């Protein structure tokens, strides 16, 4: 069995090198426009392609995370995101939450808590919207004063849930 996992790793690494080499040659010959975030995207896609059929939760998480972070950096490079925002922690939260969510979908028993991934995705998305100026905090000042209601809801859930 160890021989099979070693060969998977060898084939995965080999496939990544071949694809990256083709992308770089395409860039040198001006066939395609290659940028470094594609390395993260290709690596994430190859790792996911290997991990999903085998239901390897750690590899599913890592592959998804690489894919999402690569997409954020690629969007920044093509000016789809403001330059100063692509390195913000909101994108990191969103990517971690997204990777946890995909891991939960692929391997539900080992995927952890679904609510953790959803909270990270929502918090990351809210702060991304605020960073891009699509969400204006001053409109929600009154609502933010009621944040202790979240403590009450979480406390009631913990007290009333079944084990």
What report would you give on this structure?
The protein has 163 residues and is an all-alpha fold. The chain has one domain (2-138). The protein is built from seven helices and no strands. Helix 1 runs antiparallel to helix 2 (37-54), helix 2 packs antiparallel against helix 3 (57-77) and helix 4 (89-106) packs antiparallel against helix 5. The chain is flat and about 60 Å long.
Layout of helices and strands, plus pairs?
Blueprint: H1 2-28, H2 37-54, H3 57-77, H4 89-106, H5 114-131, H6 141-144, H7 148-160
Helix pairs in contact: 1-2, 2-3, 3-4, 4-5
Please state the overall shape, judged from the principal axes of the Cα atoms: flat
DSSP summary, beta strand count: 0
- Enumerate the spans where pLDDT stays under 50 for 5 or more consecutive residues: none
Which structural category fits the helices and strands?
A: mainly alpha
What is the rounded Rg? 20 Å
The ordered H/E elements are: HHHHHHH
Mean pLDDT: 80
Strand content: under 5%
Helix content: over 70%
Number of helices: 7
